[in-house]
Specification:
- The chain is an all-alpha fold.
- The protein has one domain.
- The chain has 14 helices and no strands.
- It has helices spanning 6-33, 41-52, 59-71, 86-96, 98-101, 104-110, 112-115, 118-122, 127-167, 187-192, 199-204, 220-230, 242-246, 254-258.
- Helix 4 packs antiparallel against helix 9.
- The longest helix has 41 residues, at 127-167.
- The chain starts with 5 loop residues before the first helix and ends in a 17-residue tail after the last helix.
């Protein structure tokens, strides 16, 4: 029976950091998809392995879909645009869009740099193995309770954070920079996703490894990269110039700041999409 445990909650949050921050936010997103920072090859592979434990696809498929998201943001070719509905953008897109958007043809076109690396070829698919690599150690160390907290609760935490970037951060919050898409900055999504919720900032400067561009915009993945940089374990961290950052604006209302209102979609032009 599931029961609340403080140590279980701590376990879920710690694993959420390792898998969601180091794995998804840093490795999958900023290092592999955008090449906005560089890690030593062994550390890159380790972080990418952590990202694969999120069960959101292998690194090659994830980067393939994400690069298409930026090229076709909020059009019919975007895998998870909210123009198809909030639930589709949040999670249902994985049901009918994940595999077509990461087909061998798409991978060859959008992620040739990854698929040609032997490590990433070996990490393709293997969902069952990623589940076993989490469930078995957790069960041996802490029994059923640790499986429930360290695997199931952690999965819900990480998935909700990642998927909320696609849904909530494409409609609610505020827009610092006019874009021809629906990207927004959402403070609560940013807190849950280690900075990924500063999504309008990211769409404005996709090659930047820093997403929280203002001092008050907490971006834990960015600060983790800065720590790694000081330790000599990260290089070539990219970020916009100060004058480019200064062109952005803050939220217009408290509703935008708190993420409970839809902002004016300055710059957004395409609103039609086929089902």
């Amino acid at each position: 029976m599931f029961r609340f445990r403080w140590d279980g909650l701590a376990l879920a949050l710690i694993l959420h950091f390792f898998i969601g921050c180091l794995g998804i936010s840093i490795a999958y997103h900023r290092v592999l998809s955008h090449r906005s920072a560089r890690l030593p090859r062994s550390l890159e592979y380790f972080f990418a392995f952590l990202g694969s434990l999120a069960l959101h696809g292998d690194p090659v498929r994830w980067a393939t879909i994400h690069r298409q998201h930026h090229r076709y943001a909020d059009t019919q070719d975007d895998a998870h645009t909210p123009l198809r509905g909030f639930l589709h953008a949040h999670a249902l897109w994985t049901r009918d869009r994940f595999l077509p958007m990461s087909s061998p043809e798409k991978i060859e076109r959008y992620a040739p740099d990854l698929i040609r690396q032997p490590f990433y070829q070996r990490t393709r698919d293997k969902l069952w193995l990623r589940i076993v690599l989490q469930v078995v150690p957790l069960y041996l160390l802490g029994g059923t309770d640790w499986v429930l907290w360290g695997f199931l609760v952690r999965y819900v935490l990480t998935s909700t954070a990642v998927w909320s970037v696609n849904s909530i951060s494409h409609g609610w919050g505020f827009r610092s920079y006019p874009r021809d898409d629906l990207s927004t900055n959402h403070v609560w999504v940013a807190l849950a996703s280690f900075g990924e919720g500063w999504h309008n900032n990211h769409h404005a400067f996709p090659s930047s490894s820093r997403l929280g561009l203002r001092r008050w915009q907490l971006d834990l993945a960015w600060w983790t990269l800065r720590v790694l940089e000081h330790l000599g374990l990260a290089q070539e961290l990219k970020q916009p110039r100060a004058d480019e950052i200064a062109c952005g604006r803050g939220p217009r209302t408290w509703g935008e700041l708190l993420g409970v209102r839809r902002p004016q979609m300055d710059g957004f032009g395409s609103t039609s999409v086929t089902a």
